[in-house]
Sequence to fold (436 residues):
Amino acid sequence: MTDQASGSATPAWLALDHRHAWHPYARAPAADPVYPVVAARGVRLVLADGRELIDGMSSWWSAIHGYNHPVLNRALADQAGRMAHVMFGGLAHQPAAELCALLARITPGRLERVFLCDSGSVAVEVAIKIALQYQLGRGERGRTRLLSLAGGYHGDTFMAMSVCDPVTGMHRLFDGVLPQQLFAARPGGAPDGPARTEDVDAFAALLAEHAPRLAAVILEPVVQGAGGMHFYSAAFLARVRELCTAHDVLLIADEIATGFGRTGRLFACEHAGIAPDILCLGKALTGGYLSLAATLASDHIAATLGAGEAGALMHGPTFMGNPLAAAVALASTRLLLAQPWSREVARIGAALRTGLEPARTLPGVRDVRVFGAIGVIETERPVAMRAITEAFVERGVWLRPFGRLVYTMPPFITGDADLAQLTGAMVEALASCPPP
Fold:
């Protein structure tokens, strides 16, 4: 494949990217190479030089149906032909109304109120605002702090950063600026195993000590994502729910990474049989087509908040409830529910367990773990990012490790042969590029 202007396999626009684009978690200009993508279909990314890469990342965990899906394409085109955008302040439209109703129906508990926002980080910001304004609506002006789990990750905006891991998290550069929150020790145990007594006791003691000043507990249910791809006991989550209820503290579940089937349940909270007071969704909500997130709460929380001084939730993004995003999110969620998604996630999990098991024998590997359609190889030391990325591309796969974690969250449509190539590449690349 060549660039039409120059006849080169390197497109001319890549120089513009290098000169002007600032990529995530990168210096500008980027120190490491970026790979020019010109198309995507199924589970494959097509590079400018004609190479095709199996996407083991689902574009940061969002493209659960793969790329260029006819159902989602049609939903987007149909909506674009009617109305691309309209402000949500004082106006309503069908895609958003039907999406909100569907999310309220399929999520755990009775979360009847849905706030549609721009991204996962903003969904967390909105959840925190809801919790704070709810406490004000109750007359609890002293409940302003949050309790989170060590090892967690909740986004890049400022309040979201404040509840990310304060020691090993990627946001520690902002110490002294961020609000100071409370952190319980990272829980352990297998997702389907018992809660560790020491985890529950430590959390219970911290919650009891600070409950009068807490607006909410916020956590990622069962799976901590970008903070370490760490899995913990669902029974611990069940105990957290009981303790929050006993101390009259709200529970916020951040399911931005785990929602829509990734862990083998539609929502990770279901592994513990619990419902949060506030729920954050994002990533896979639109199947990777457009940025959209949602924060859900109960009618009771909404009514209590509305009785407060402000009389309304004080947040309103310009593109809130965008019709294009709402239409494709509605189509993506309906598509997921109409398919045997749990069977496919189980199939992917089995393939990941088989394919990644040989990595246990590699030098420098600390752990290999799989849960749902998430496969992780954890190393003793950080991987050599540039070298291992190049090794993946040479083997026809796209993966984006970070720190000591080489992991995959493939689209749910990934076939067995592609899964074998993906896991084989992970093992081979680590063998050829061990952590320095």
The chain is about 35% helix and 15% strand. The longest strand covers residues 365-371. The radius of gyration is 22 Å.
